[in-house]
Every structure is written in C-alpha cells, then in structure tokens.
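Worked example

This section walks through a single chain of length 206. The input is the sequence exactly as stored; nothing has been trimmed or padded.
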Amino acid sequence: MLLTIYDKAGTKRADVAVNDSSTQSKEVQGDNVLSLSFSYYDFLPLDVNDYTDYLGERYWLTERYTPKQVNEGEWDYDLKLYGVESLIKRFLVLETTDGDTNPVFTLTATPREHAALVVKAINDGMGHTTDWKVGTVEGTELITIDYEGMYCDEALKAIAEKAGGKVEWWVEGQTVNVCRCEHGEEITLGYGKGLTSLEKDTSNTA
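Given that input, the structure is written out below as tokens.
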C-alpha cells in the first residue's frame, strides 16, 4: 500500500510503499496507533508533527525519527504515528471564560457542553484550529465535573461515565462523540496490500 507522508505544513515529503508488517491498532477510549515499516532509497528526514492519512484518519509523528541505514542507497523505517486519541493526552482542559487560562475549575453543565469544552481544548492544542467538532453526545441531565489539571482524554472518560449507561468517547474523522460506539467485525486486509490488520479492543463495551 502506498501512503503519503507530509510535513507539519502540509508539504509532501514522500510517497512510501509500506510492507505487510504495518498495522493499525485502535481502541475505543484508548490509543490509536499506526505502525509503518518500509524501505526507502534515500535519507528521508522525519520530524515531529509530520503526518499521513489512512482510512479517513490522520496520524502524526510525535518525535523526530532517524532511520536505520542498510547500505549506501537504502534506509529502513519503522515508525509509530498516533491518531488524535493518543495526542489529546497532552492537552489540558482549560477554563477560559474570564480571559485567563485556568486548569483547575468545576463545571456543572450538560454532557454536550462539557464535550464542547474538551473539543475547544483539542482545537487549541492542535494549533488553534476549528477543525474538530462535537458529534453525538448522549445525556441531557446536568453533570458536575471537577477539572483539576485534567487532560482531554481523562475529561472525555469522565463525561462518558457521568452520562451513564454504556456510553463511551470515540473519534470519527474530526468529530468527537460521547455515546455508545457500535463495532463492526475485525478487518484484515489482503496479503500484499501493506497494512494487514485492524485491531479493536471491545472490552469496554461488553
């Protein structure tokens, strides 16, 4: 399978043919990791926030990567790129209504209003964009959450728990949902197609 790697500004670095050991591993309310293995016949500099798109999702490199040189004209690459589910572990939820940024506060609001606060933190953390949106959020009762230095993934989990039932947080494209995530069957891509497996952890939905 051929994937395109871009730098953080969106300029194409290279098209790479990933091999059959490359995988996507995605867990509901957990990490989303794209592991890529490929050989490239040039030294390809890869830096933090370089990214690729796969099956409608974007995956970023979180550290500078140096490939292994096999010989004078060949380098081996084994990369781990992370979806937004993993990146948001670095973003604090902040209270900004008074113009200040405060990571310690308490909010009583509907689950959707809480989710909107988290999505704002994601947009700010991703470079002050407006790309990320609130999707389906279950629950209409007011819930209270103490945000005491809470990161976005922790906040979404707290919202899901307070909303009750079998509610989970999950991301589809650039939309953040807090509702039951219905899973399909495990997908295995054919031999020779590059990415060979899609693993989903469904333990939280039993």
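What to look for: Confidence is low (pLDDT under 50) at residues 183-206.
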